[in-house]
## 1
Amino acid sequence: MSKDLRSFIQQMEQTMPQDFLKIKKEVNPRFELCAVLRKFQESNQFPAVFYENVKGTKMPVIANTLAARERLALALETTSHALTKEYAGRQHDLKPVMRVDHGPVKEIVLSGGAVDVTSLPQVVHCEKDGGPYISSGIMILKDPDSGVYNMGIYRIQIKSKNKLGIYFGAYSHAAHIFRKFEERGEVMELAIAIGHHPAVYLGAQYRGPFEISELEVTGGLLGEPLRMVKGETVDLDVPADAEIVIEGRIPPGVREMEGPFGEYTWYMGDALENPIIEVTAVTHRRDAIYYDIFSAHPEHNLTGLLGREAILWERLKASIPTVKQVVLPFSGTCRHTVYVSIKKEYDGLGKNAALAALAGDPFMKMAVVVDDDIDVLNESEVLWAICTRVQADRDVFIIPDAYVCELDPSAYDIKGKEIRGYLNCKWAIDATKPVEIPFQERAEVPEDMWKNLDLKYYLES
Ligand SMILES: Cc1cc2nc3c(=O)[nH]c(=O)nc-3n(C[C@H](O)[C@H](O)[C@H](O)COP(=O)(O)O)c2cc1C
């Protein structure tokens, strides 16, 4: 049996039943489905929820699957503490795809006039969203020059039975590929997979070189080759074990308004002039399960976390061998802030580490570098280091007019800071102590006295 969404659901049911809930009552995909998740979030709970009965569709919906680190860890068969390094290791274990003649995703094939994406669950997540969105579509493309496959998750607006809107940021490989097709005046064929094993979602978040096939990276993350089957109406292979695949094409030179949409920043992302997708086929399992990602909420951030954390870890390790840990905290949307701890061997290394962190991924806006006595998973320790080890005139530096992401609500345009645009000011804080100048020591009780202390002994009468 190949790994797929169903095998993962089974694993969740068996190993963490308290985090997997089934709801039988009918829910409306417009707000109500997400309202249930939001209510859980109020009390710091993030269960995966399987909705058996969703208004307006025959398909059940699973949402919030990757809303907790423990389930990311389950997807990669590791612990939540070891996640980043596990992803970093597996992403190099490239496994060529397994081409198959048939797959469950072909049980139902609808093309031409039979195509109707409005029969899929029409999930509306946030109050100001521009309508129903597919938040969990993994778009599959082929580079026209090399034939290398690329995957990514992009917000996809359902516009009509056979028309979708899509937004891919200027930085993305998808945008790079689309620019090639558009310059040649050619349509860009694509496939969108919805619902698969979470490792496939994590593979779509790989941030390594363009030349590497994300299908092969995904094989490494899955621990087995990804099974692919020929598309019906496009010259692309599609994941054979997905729940649903939408096939289509983006015509060159066409733009329509798309958005607004609740984003990973937890703000509303602007409505923008974006490409459209003409849908040419929809294929799915007979009893397909629709996979939704709760956008603008923790699942959105966590799904995108590991690809970035892992590549930053590797890039920092390459230039700073004494790097200890790299963390993209929630407070920085798991995308724009990076905390790095290093064993500082010589003066200047803190600044070099900060530069490497900012350069390691275009999304990095703020880098904070601390010594290795600070636990970067504990944000108050990071803030304590900033408070006690930093003088802003010496330890903070600013790089104006760099690209971060246009979705940052404070991003600005080259023509003026008051105009919204692509640009951002990157900055870094070197919160490490000097090496060659004596620095005051931490005040602490001897560790061997308290670390393994048995409090029960003292509380017994
Ligand atoms: C839930 C989710 C939604 C996302 N939506 C978008 C989006 O709308 N546009 C975008 O450019 N990136 C989006 N991303 C980030 C991309 O999927 C990610 O950067 C990916 O690595 C891009 O792949 P590429 O560089 O191969 O194109 C999203 C990520 C997640 C986890």
## 2
Amino acid sequence: MTVSIKPAFRNCLLPLQPYVPGSSTEEVAGRYAPIRISKMGSNENPLGPGPKAMEAVRNLAASLSVYPDASAGDLRAALAAAAGKKPGNFFVGNGSDEVLLLIAATYLNPGDQVLVGTHTFFNYEFVARVFDGEVHTIPTRDLRYDLPAFSAAADARTKLIFLCNPNNPTGLYFTHTDLAGFLYSLPRNVLVVVDEAYGEYADAEDFPDTAALMEDFPNLVAVRTFSKAYGLAGLRVGYAMASETIVKDLRQVKMPFNVNLPAQKAALAALGDAEHLERTLGLNGEGKRSLTRELEKLGCEVLPSQGNFLCFQPPGSAAAICEYLFRQGVIVRPLNRFGLDRWIRVTVGTQNQNSHFLEALSAFFSA
Ligand SMILES: Cc1ncc(COP(=O)(O)O)c(C=O)c1O
């Protein structure tokens, strides 16, 4: 008889696939040794963190022996002031990944149903499975969320619905009216989590105002992050905006010091750096327009994006193109793991990075 040397893995974890992040600079440098590298596969801010956030981190080295504020009070107060809400409407986590995990930890009983879409961020399914939720996947329609299909699928067992807006990896979005109608169609004990990780980039006039919708629909939670437009992915700060009741629930479940001191200070400083945000959004808007134009000239189908990335379908094998781009030092995201084998996601970069990407792609097509 063989004796197991460890406890059995929980059954609900067996279908889990490990998360595969976008390739790192070190990985591509080690494998291909290209002359230069443009990292355009993880939707980071190509300008980096803003000067105020960097200064905040530099200034706190001598305070690192002290525990951070367990309630992230200053940051929550600043988020509240910016959104016209109360600090009690904000919950801060170690990246929005942790916020998503804690939402599942707080509300899911084994077997509760969780609705997620196809072709979206992997973590919704992941957090649901970690807490033994029963994941029900609703297919997209023309690559967009089919909200009426979500409404039709929601039943008495449905506890949580995860939506990503604008969606990663497509960049497509649903409107304020779409979301309001959807919320109206659901029982109020179903929690609707709208992940707005790229919300700062969205400039469509009819993009949802989740802060306003929350007044009528207390079962709505918006999740945002400092990893994208604020350029602080390495520090790990994300947050939920929700009713005070939901925030209280989440605080009951979190580890006491889940958000470290540099993260709190840098996020606070970043919120006060309107100039860096403006530069970030300006660069992104320009880059998105010129990349779209050039990609279309090369025969690619490009989805209209409300994020800091473009999702495009090239004429030819996406896998072969990604491999070629990697060899040239351009890190993009092949979308086979998102169920989109023929599509590629590229982060909008600096002008230099965008040119590097376009030159490499043109070279592939003319080879
Ligand atoms: C849609 C979406 N949500 C959440 C995250 C996680 O962000 P964070 O760095 O805040 O954990 C990402 C990161 O890529 C994302 O694309």
